[in-house]
Specification:
It contains 25 helices and six strands. The chain is mainly alpha-helical and about 600 residues long. It folds into three domains: about 140 residues, no CATH class; about 150 residues, no CATH class; about 200 residues, no CATH class. β3 and β4 form a beta hairpin. α11 packs antiparallel against α14, α11 packs parallel to α15 and α19 runs parallel beside α25. The longest helix has about 40 residues. It is elongated. The N and C termini lie far apart (about 95 Å). This is Nck-associated protein 1.
Length: about 600
């Protein structure tokens, strides 16, 4: 019996607090009921009972008569009038005075001989307290402020409730009980106020934080399970199933079945489950791990969402805000973990796989939104892929380890390169992957990435400008002597640096390399814009059609005043003759001088 009571203690506390809240919320209903009951029944019953008793002394008879007349004059209209405040302490004091008189041996009236009268008077006194003494009655019958002095036991019961699946929905009562600690104060001990206030605030904050952490952990565990299920639908998993099926057919054709005809029995390989097999079960009572996690999530969300606000010592606590903060912090860490970025090998997850993981996580968060009234559609600014695409991919492009294929619209490995790459660029830069990257980063992320790319282009243009200024005289001479081969050959030697037996075309190679880098970056940016345009066209086709129509009918395409309009086109991934990002970068640097 003790274990049963201890196990369901949170539920009992929850309903006690709930009854307190209901009584305080519907105070007017309770008071109206008892006013009508006193005037309509108690007054008549007391008058009838007093008339049947003949041995009442005159002083007591006057008190009883005044008592009966006072409760008979009660009216509901006076209760609804805020200017009239009921105070029945005088009537209760008269009843206590009668009890004191009757306890004396010299008093001619004994309440022991009139039990019904004593019972009726006590009932009337209780009804009077339910009108003008309701708050004190509630505190006397359901005050739980004694937990303030047993904080260790209080925390232990909280943790047991949080760990119990059947009682976790009632865990919200523990931070609510911290508001009862104010009832521990006494006017003769004012020095205890600060200590009790700090105890109540710290415990309430601790309980809400632990509830939010537990909910966050359940969400993370549920995401891991759903991620494993979603990975079974990826093409790489499907490819394994196809490869196993092909190998099985090849073994049959190669005479593997002849061994069985000779009496040899091959060992059967374990059958791997297909996606969706987890939905089949013999009985609905058989709960899987995902079912248990969703049940735990439902119970915890009920506890968090039950009290929108908890007021403790004039401090307001919002349980939903605790959960929102923990979910946001865990979301940022989870997205970073999804990327699986390794600084040593410069490897990172493919955008399509990361997008699949993010969609799975958002599905779990939207499930959370169904139970708790919070907004999980928060904008997340992530720099996924910035270092990989800008520092790793494009750097290897400048070293000719990776080439751009206009036919395939992707970057491919250079078969003539002596240095092997640690990853396949086709898996990261093909059109579906860049569309997934655009969906991950969003419009603001793509704008940031485009600005970074154009920052690199502007840097290359600055280097080209320096190269031109260094060889200004030779370039001017070549421009005026282009029809004289001997002179051109001599000027070309000035651009050539000879170092022993090796001949390096320093200026020429530098020029070609930087122009190649600019071209590769622009091609990569165009691929990103195409992916962004497809995404925006799918999400807001009407807006994209309006922008394209505006471009066809209004913009001539060869004016510098198109710069503000081109920013709008760039945000939607629409190609424009004026590159707004590059123009903004070049305008911040020195004007490019054409020789």
């Amino acid at each position: 019996l003790e274990n049963l009571i201890f196990r369901v203690l949170p539920e009992m506390l929850f309903y006690m607090v709930e009854l307190r809240e209901l009584l305080l919320r519907y105070r007017s209903v309770v008071q109206r009921y008892h006013v009508q009951y006193l005037a309509g029944f108690d007054a008549l019953a007391l008058n009838e009972l007093l008339q049947s008793i003949a041995s009442i002394p005159q002083e007591s008879s006057v008190i009883f008569s005044d008592f009966c007349q006072a409760i008979a004059e009660l009216n509901v209209e006076d209760l609804e009038n805020d200017s009239v405040a009921y105070n029945f302490q005088g009537l209760r004091l008269d009843w206590y005075r009668l009890q004191a008189y009757s306890s004396s041996a010299r008093f001619g009236f004994c309440l022991h001989d009139h039990v019904k009268l004593a019972q009726l008077m006590n009932t009337i006194v209780f009804h009077l307290k339910m009108i003008d003494f309701l708050d004190q009655i509630i505190n006397e019958t359901s005050d739980l402020s004694s937990y303030c002095f047993y904080s260790v036991l209080f925390e232990e019961q909280f943790r047991l409730c949080l760990e119990s699946p059947s009682q976790s929905r009632y865990v919200c009562v523990f931070p609510k009980l911290c508001s009862h600690f104010a009832n521990c104060l006494h006017n003769l001990c004012p020095e205890e106020r600060i200590h009790i206030e700090e105890k109540g605030l710290s415990l309430c904050n601790l309980f809400l934080d632990e509830i939010a952490k537990e909910t966050r952990n359940v969400v993370s565990t549920a995401y891991e399970q759903h991620r494993l299920l979603s990975e079974e639908l990826l093409p790489k998993t499907c490819a394994k199933l196809i490869a196993n099926a092909i190998n099985k057919e090849n073994r049959k054709k190669s005479g593997f079945m002849t061994l069985e005809k000779k009496g040899f029995k091959r060992s059967l390989s374990p059958q791997h489950g297909y996606p969706g097999d987890e939905s089949y079960r013999r009985s609905r009572e058989d709960m899987t791990l995902i079912d248990k996690l969703h049940f735990a999530l439902t119970e915890l969300c009920f506890a968090i969402d039950y009290y929108p606000q908890i007021v403790v010592w004039e401090h307001t606590f919002a349980p939903r805000e605790y959960l929102t903060q923990h979910i946001e912090a865990r979301f940022n860490k989870t997205v970073v973990a999804m990327a699986m970025y390794d600084k040593d090998t410069q490897e990172i997850a493919k955008p399509s796989e990361l997008l699949n993981s993010i969609r799975t996580y958002m599905d779990v968060l939207q499930t959370l939104e169904n139970y708790v009234q919070i907004d999980v559609q928060t904008q997340h600014q992530d720099c996924y892929g910035e270092e990989t695409y800008l520092e790793v991919l494009l750097r290897r492009v400048s070293n000719y380890q990776i080439l751009y294929s206009g036919h395939l619209r992707t970057f491919v490995s250079n078969p003539m390169s002596e240095i092997a790459t640690s990853f396949f660029p086709e898996e990261y830069t093909d059109y579906p992957e860049l569309c997934a990257l655009a969906e991950i980063l969003g419009a603001y992320g793509m704008k940031f990435l485009s600005e970074r790319l154009m920052w690199h282009v502007a840097g290359q243009i600055s280097e080209l400008k320096k190269l031109v200024l260094q060889n200004r005289e030779s370039l001017r001479a070549m421009r005026t002597n282009f029809d004289r081969p001997d002179r051109m050959r001599e000027l070309f030697r000035h651009l050539t640096v000879t170092d022993g037996n090796k001949k390096h075309l320093d200026a020429v190679d530098n020029l070609l390399q930087r122009v190649t880098i600019v071209g590769e970056i622009v091609c990569f940016r165009d691929l990103l814009r195409q992916g962004l345009n497809e995404l925006v066209s799918e999400r807001v086709p009407f807006l994209v059609n309006c922008m394209e129509d505006f471009k066809r009918t209004t913009c001539s395409g060869d004016k510098l005043d198109m710069l503000p309009v081109s920013e709008m086109f760039s945000a939607a991934g629409i190609k424009c003759i004026v590159d707004s990002d590059l123009m903004m970068r070049l305008m911040t640097t020195t004007t490019f001088v054409v020789c």
